[in-house]
Specification:
It is a single chain. The chain is mainly alpha-helical. Helices cover 68% and strands 0% of the residues. The protein has 17 helices and no strands. The N terminus is likely disordered.
């Protein structure tokens, strides 16, 4: 196939960009650090101030992330006892109805799906009432259309069940990662005698969920990072001043709301800056700097960072053979195998969607059904009720199908950042609170002393 000159130039620019991204040197890696993270907040600053990584939308009832665009899906946070109370509240239906126009399915379907159904209903009503004769109205048999509606409903339900299976599976994977991380932290504190090896292993356990999160999600779950570039505005030019005033305490501006365009940096560079900020939070003591640079280079080069972290774990375990019993070394390696299995399973879900032919076919059927629905409703609903009934029916069915499409990519829905922070806190707690129990050894008694003690006990019992 021959390419047009403009297409050929575009292809050559993309090839040059990909090759330049793979040519990693010390200069390019260090230059990436010049990009300042706009969203990540160090854990120490979260505890001392009111700054947080998450922007919670409290108006929707349950705890969930604030959606910065109508196309964004609903992203829940970890539930607490208070969250469960709101979730099961008897007045929940009234709250849900009140928040209908703020809900994700309605805003996502508003355009073009529901807009298209509205226009078809309006044009059909106008044609049948003002143009067509009574015996030439544009309608479809409601009885025949009902069978197709049943099939469409079953199709949407099947899609939702299949997608939820993927969602549940990924939650189980991250549960296994959480359990293995805690087990490895405890075993490291129990069996590794060398302080340097123990410290390195614990840092690797903290770095693994962070690297996996950035590996599975293009933005590292920083959903407010924009892919598109725009011309710098006055707010962008004053970014440095706002940051300086914020740190000086002159203004009270949340860290994640102070944004800049960063038009001079690529999307990958800005995501990489957030990754480095999280990794530096783990390696803040200045030790094991080789691991930090190693992960930096692999991530910037488009490599597999979680696999690199697992490799470093096994290097640490292999280096402890002289000081750790071989049985315990095997136990440590088995926990690494569990991490690797969950990691591989997560990659399988990420790289293998539901059959795309099924997705395209169901999408076509949903479009045809929703836009022919007004023709079937018109004979029964008349000119006044056809439009609202068609929109509500299409919203009900298309909303179920759209939720299934969003659940198909679980890593964009699950609160991976909270999972990662929870593993960090668990490893830190094990490291901070682990105190081995030492049994005090009593002075051994010889046979004569033991017999004398027995005689004394017998005499004391007789006196009593």
């Amino acid at each position: 196939m021959l390419l047009k000159p403009s297409m050929f130039a575009r292809e050559m620019r993309m090839v040059h960009f990909r090759s330049s991204r793979r040519c990693i040197s010390a200069t390019t890696v260090n230059s990436s650090a010049e990009v300042k993270p706009n969203f990540y907040v160090p854990k120490a600053e979260r505890k001392t101030g009111n700054r947080n990584v998450f922007t919670v939308d409290a108006k929707m009832g349950e705890a969930r992330l604030l959606r910065n665009d109508r196309r964004c899906p609903t992203r829940e946070l970890n539930f607490t006892p208070e969250s469960w109370g709101k979730h099961k509240d008897p007045y929940r239906r009234l709250r849900h109805i009140a928040n209908t126009f703020r809900s994700s399915p309605l805003q996502r379907l508003a355009f073009p799906d529901l807009f298209g159904v509205t226009m078809v209903s309006f044009c059909l009503t106008y044609y049948n009432e003002f143009i067509a004769y009574a015996d030439a109205m544009a309608t479809v048999s409601s009885a025949g259309f009902a069978g197709g509606t049943t099939v469409i409903g079953l199709l949407a339900g099947f899609r939702l069940n299949a997608s939820y299976g993927r969602y549940e599976e990924c939650r189980i994977f991250w549960g296994d990662i959480n359990n293995s991380t805690r087990d490895l932290a405890g075993q490291t504190m129990m069996w590794m005698k060398d302080a340097n090896q123990r410290s390195r292993m614990l840092k690797l356990l903290k770095a693994f969920p962070v690297s996996l999160m950035f590996h599975l999600h293009a933005k590292g779950c920083h959903h407010n990072i924009l892919r598109r570039f725009h011309a710098p505005t006055d707010e962008d030019r004053d970014y440095a001043d706002l940051q300086a005033k914020e740190h000086a305490g002159e203004i009270d501006t949340p860290h994640h709301n102070v944004t800049r365009s960063d038009a001079e940096f690529t999307f990958e560079d800005r995501v990489h800056a957030e990754f480095l900020a999280e990794l530096r939070d783990i390696y803040s003591d200045g030790k094991d700097e080789e691991d930090f640079q190693r992960f930096n280079k692999v991530k910037y080069g488009g490599g597999n960072t979680p696999l690199e972290v697992l490799t470093c774990m096994r290097e640490t375990i292999a280096g402890s053979i002289d000081t750790v019993d071989p049985v315990y070394v095997r136990e440590l390696d088995e926990q690494c195998q569990r991490l690797c299995a969950a990691f591989g399973a997560s990659e399988r879900v990420l790289r293998t969607p539901l059959p795309t032919g099924f997705t395209r076919h169901s999408s076509r059927l949903m479009f045809i059904w929703s836009h022919t629905l007004p023709f079937a409703l018109y004979p029964a609903m008349g000119p006044l009720l056809t439009l609202p009934t068609a929109v509500l029916t299409a919203y009900a069915v298309l909303g179920v199908e759209d939720i299934g499409v969003q659940l198909e990519e679980p890593f964009d829905i699950l609160p991976l950042r909270q999972y990662s922070d929870g593993m960090y806190d668990a490893v830190s707690a094990v490291e901070r609170n682990y105190t081995p129990y030492v049994i005090k050894k009593e002075t051994p008694y010889d046979e004569k002393t033991l017999s004398e003690r027995m005689v004394d006990l017998v005499n004391e019992s007789k006196k009593e």
